[in-house]
């Protein structure tokens, strides 16, 4: 956005009962602090009236929001606690991304990013691509954890981008989803585009970009399933959208309709989704490199709760 933008959108079902500042942050990709500032400055109306940031929002109520003009996002080195480098050489760096960290700066996002964290730690990153996306060849959602690879050299950037385009990179995720998918193993082929509400969500929509997700149930619990997921395509929120379309949203993913009571029971405050494996041909010499990531504590705890009840 280059100028202030007026938006009028309904509160999604998945955010029913959420605090106004939290709902606004999720819908428009803002930090909680930025959302609270918009509310306090009178730039947000709930049902045509001003409201406190702590007010709970009902699904379907209309939000009128004036989003400010966004300055071009550029990476500014800053430390990112919990960002772990699992492999590095002259051409690539593979990281294990913690929750609450975006891949790179974007308008409206004021939280930490992988790119800024690596720059702060003294890592050299390729300068190819847009200034705010140096070395970025793929992304994870801010609250999705796990493995990412970034390019350090310009040849590596070009080679990795091509490998992702040609689907030569193996990306394996684990997701805890509500309910039990039927069949237990399957493929979802459904086009994904922006949700018609314009509230920041994505959805299965006619005319969307072709999207293919393979899933396989690894373990079943009372009311939930642990699934392994392999992507053929890499659309924004693809796993979250496709699993929600099957009526099996990722546990904790309130933006896509997950049950908040179930999430609270498991101690989840974000979607249960983790990039567990990443493998590809090294861009410099073609040798196969594979990496794995253990579940973070919050995701492991949720499984412990379910296993204890099964």
Care to give the gist of this entry?
With 310 residues, this protein is an alpha+beta fold.
Notable characteristics:
single chain; 310 residues; alpha+beta; Structural Genomics Hypothetical 15.5 Kd Protein In mrcA-pckA Intergenic Region, Chain A; Pseudouridine synthase; 9-stranded mixed β-sheet; 7 helices; 14 strands; 21% helix
Task: Tell me what you see in this structure.
The protein is α+β, with helices and mostly antiparallel strands and 310 residues long. It folds into 3 domains: 5-67, Structural Genomics Hypothetical 15.5 Kd Protein In mrcA-pckA Intergenic Region, Chain A; 71-165, Pseudouridine synthase (2-Layer Sandwich), CATH 3.30.2350.10; 172-273 and 302-309, Pseudouridine synthase (2-Layer Sandwich), CATH 3.30.2350.10. It is built from 7 helices and 14 strands. The strands form 3 sheets. Strands 4, 5, 6, 7, 8, 11, 12, 13 and 14 form a 9-stranded mixed sheet that branches. Helix 1 (20-28) packs across helix 2. The longest helix has 13 residues, at 297-309. It starts with a strand and ends with a helix. The mean pLDDT is 91.
Q: Kindly report the average pLDDT value.
A: 91
Write down the domain tally. Answer: 3
Low-confidence stretches: none
User: Given the structure, what is the number of helices?
Assistant: 7
Ends distance: 49 Å
- Can you count the beta strands? 14
Shape: globular
- SSE class: alpha+beta
The helical percent reads 10-25%
For the CA atoms, what is the radius of gyration?
20 Å
Write the CATH architecture name of the largest domain.
2-Layer Sandwich
Oligomer status: single chain
């Amino acid at each position: 956005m280059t100028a202030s933008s007026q938006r009028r959108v309904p509160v999604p079902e998945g955010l029913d009962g959420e605090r106004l500042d939290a709902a606004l942050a999720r819908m428009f990709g803002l930090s909680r602090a930025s959302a609270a500032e918009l509310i306090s400055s009178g730039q947000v109306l709930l049902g045509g009236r001003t409201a406190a940031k702590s007010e709970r929002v009902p699904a379907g109520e209309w939000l009128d929001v004036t989003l400010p003009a966004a300055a071009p996002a550029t990476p500014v080195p800053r430390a990112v606690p919990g960002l772990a480098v699992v492999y590095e050489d002259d051409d690539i760096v593979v990281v294990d991304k913690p929750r609450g960290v975006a891949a790179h700066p974007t308008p409206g996002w004021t939280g930490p990013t992988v790119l800024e964290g690596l720059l702060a730690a003294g890592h050299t990153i390729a300068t190819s691509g847009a200034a705010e996306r140096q070395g970025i060849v793929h992304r994870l959602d801010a609250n999705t954890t796990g493995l990412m690879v970034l390019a350090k050299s310009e040849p590596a950037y070009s080679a990795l981008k091509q490998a992702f385009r040609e689907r030569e990179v193996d990306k394996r995720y684990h997701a805890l989803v509500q309910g039990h998918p039927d069949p237990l193993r399957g493929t979802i082929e459904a086009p994904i585009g922006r949700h018609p509400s314009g509230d920041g969500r994505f959805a299965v929509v006619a005319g969307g970009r072709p999207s293919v997700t393979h899933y396989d149930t690894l373990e079943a619990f009372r009311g939930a399933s642990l699934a392994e997921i392999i992507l053929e395509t890499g659309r924004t929120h693809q796993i979250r959208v496709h699993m929600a379309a099957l009526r099996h949203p990722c546990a904790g993913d309130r933006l896509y309709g997950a049950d908040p009571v179930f999430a609270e029971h498991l101690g989840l405050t974000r979607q249960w989704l983790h990039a567990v494996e990443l493998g590809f041909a090294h861009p410099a010499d073609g040798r196969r490199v594979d990496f794995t990531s253990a579940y973070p504590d919050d995701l492991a705890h949720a499984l412990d709760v379910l296993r204890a009840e099964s």
